[in-house]
Amino acid sequence: MAEAAGDDRRLRVDLDVTPSDDWDCPIVDETDDASDVAINAVGHECTVDVQPASGDGLIRGQGAVTEDCLCRIFREFGCVPHVQRVTDGTMLVTTYVDDRTVVREIVDALRDALDSVRLARLAVVEGPEATEQVTFDLSALTPKQREGLELAVVRGYFDDDADVALGDLAAELGISKSALSQRLRTAQAKLVTDVFDEVER
C-alpha cells in the first residue's frame, strides 16, 4: 500500500466502532440505528444530527466533548471522523490519513476508550476528488484471518522499518507462529485476489 507523499495520495480507513454501555455520546444515546450522522464539535460542546434508519425525522442531540469522545480522539491525530451509519449500536466511522502509521495510533487510542474497534476497509485514494485506487475489504475474510491481519497492521508488522516479530503477534493471539503465518498468507492472498477481480470488472 502506498504512503501519501506529494502526490495527493491518502488512505481511507473505515472502522467498526462499538462503544461500551456506559459511553456517553449523543450519537448512540439517540438511536441504535442511523442512516446518517453529522457531527459539529466546537470546544467542549458537541451537537449531532442523527437520521434514524427508520426514516423518521432528524434527531438533534447535544453533549460534552470528553476524553473518550470520537471527536477528541480523532482530532488528536489531525483527523476528522465521519460516522456513515449506526447499526445495532455499532458505528461505521470513516477517516482519511496521510500515513498508515496513524491508523495504528488511532485504533490503539480508540481501543483504550471503547469496547471494540475493528478495521472494516482500507482504500488508497488519490486526488482532490478522493478517487479510490486500491481497496481492501476486510469483511471478505474469516474472523480469524481478519483478527490476525488486523493485529499485524495495527502493530506495524508490514511497515518497512517494522520491529515487530511474527512470534510476538502469535503470542498475543495465543496461537503458534506457523498458524499465524498461514493465516496471514491466506488473508493476503484473498485480499489481493479480490483487488484484481475488482480491477478486471
What characteristics describe this protein?
201 residues, alpha+beta, 8 strands, 35% helix
List the helices and strands and how they pair.
Blueprint: E1 9-18, H1 26-30, E2 34-42, E3 45-52, E4 59-64, H2 70-76, E5 82-87, E6 90-97, H3 100-113, E7 116-126, E8 131-137, H4 143-155, H5 166-173, H6 177-200
Helix pairs in contact: 4-5, 4-6, 5-6
Write a structural description:
The chain has helices at residues 26-30, 70-76, 100-113, 143-155, 166-173, 177-200; strands at residues 9-18, 34-42, 45-52, 59-64, 82-87, 90-97, 116-126, 131-137. The protein contains six helices and eight strands. The protein has a domain at 141-201: Arc Repressor Mutant, subunit A (Orthogonal Bundle). α4 (143-155) packs across α5 (166-173) and α5 (166-173) packs across α6 (177-200). The strands form two sheets. Strands 5-6-1-7-8 form a five-stranded antiparallel sheet. A three-stranded antiparallel sheet has the order 2-3-4. Mean pLDDT is 80; it is low at 1-7. It is elongated.
CATH topology of the domain at 141-201: Arc Repressor Mutant, subunit A
- Give the DSSP E fraction (strand runs of 2 or more residues): 25-35%
What is the overall pLDDT average?
80
Order of helices and strands: EHEEEHEEHEEHHH
Q: Please name the CATH architecture of the domain at 141-201.
A: Orthogonal Bundle
Q: How do the strands line up in the largest sheet? A: 5-6-1-7-8
Number of helices: 6
* Oligomeric state of the chains in view: single chain
Bin the helical content: 25-40%
Query: How many individual β-strands?
Result: 8
Report, as a whole number of angstroms, the end-to-end distance: 21 Å
Q: What's the story with the biggest beta sheet?
A: 5 strands, antiparallel
